[in-house]
Target: Acid-sensitive two pore domain k+ channel dtask-6-like protein
Amino acid sequence: MIPKAIPMEIRHIVFLLIFFILYVIFGGIVFMLLEWPDEQIKRKEIGLLLNEFTEHIKRLNHTQFTEEKFRLIIHELLMAQDNNLIDSYGNQQPFINWSFINSFFFAITVITTIGYGHLTPRTIMGKFFCIIYALFGIPITSLLIGSVADRFSKLYSPKKLPRGLKRTAPKYQRQLSARFLMLRRGLISLVPWFFTFLVVPAWIFRYLEGWSFLDGFYYCFITLSTIGFGDYVVAGGFEKNYIWIYKIIIVFWIIFGLAYLSMILNFITNAIRSRRISNVMNSLRVKINSNGSLVARMRRNQNDDDDHHHHCHLNHHQYQRQQQQFPSPRFINNNYLINDDYSSYKQRPNSSIFNNFESEHLKHGQKSTMHLFHKIMRPTTSLPELSECMVRTQQVATITIV
Model:
């Protein structure tokens, strides 16, 4: 039971770590049950093959011992050596490859994507289970490593603004300072990671594994970068009393080393990404400043056209009100017109074609004006289209009113 006094983030990491360990133990047990019987069968076959090879060597003049059979025996012995069933001298290895501790460590290399390759499943069920186990185990490991990396990053994240930079400073200055601060903290965090997870383990492996310091350093980096060539593997060729403690310490070293390296890479990646975004924003700011006068002119022209259209619209309404108050003379036939009080009349000029054209043109002008007005009010209209609409509206309104 996790105490409630512990912060939620720490409790979350502890829960993930416990679940991760249980998942690895489960994988180790299953891999051992699937691969250990097949290993025992292979050991018996290699034992019989070694005895047969020894007997044939003692009787070199035996006619049944052909060159093809000799090559086949050599091939089988080399394969047995690759599978850690015999050593380079042809002696059978005393330890079991698929013991629980080795299966446990193999499960770690699977779900952390290190994959040394020194131990691989041989059975069909073992290969199938390895695929399913990795599909669920890799996301669990990524979640655990990400949580630990976030916790590490908070230890290096700035609690306040850099010295000498006030909150009233321009936004781009604060972003620039935060970017350099992030990059600086990422580089600073490299130092403890370098010594804690690379240098110190390299010296330890020098004494426990018999490697040189360079080989130990090489193994540490290849492991924590998840490259995992498999040419060097800790505790891969011996059984000792402290093997459990040794490999459990290796497991925690891998988990926290991967999390710390992930934090460093996130610092560097965020700094590079922030710099790229700031470069884009600066280029946009330069373009906006250079085109500011053009945009301002276009907006002024648009406002002038809007005022002119509004003025024409008001004149049209005023004309309609005047027509309602003071109606124009009405035609009683095609040749004469008369006032409303029938006080006077005069002959209509020969302009019936002109009057019909004037009436139709007025209707068409009103429709065109409203169509252009709706197009102007549309938010998707671009500035060039807006300017063209303004000019056309001015022309139509002028002809209509006149």
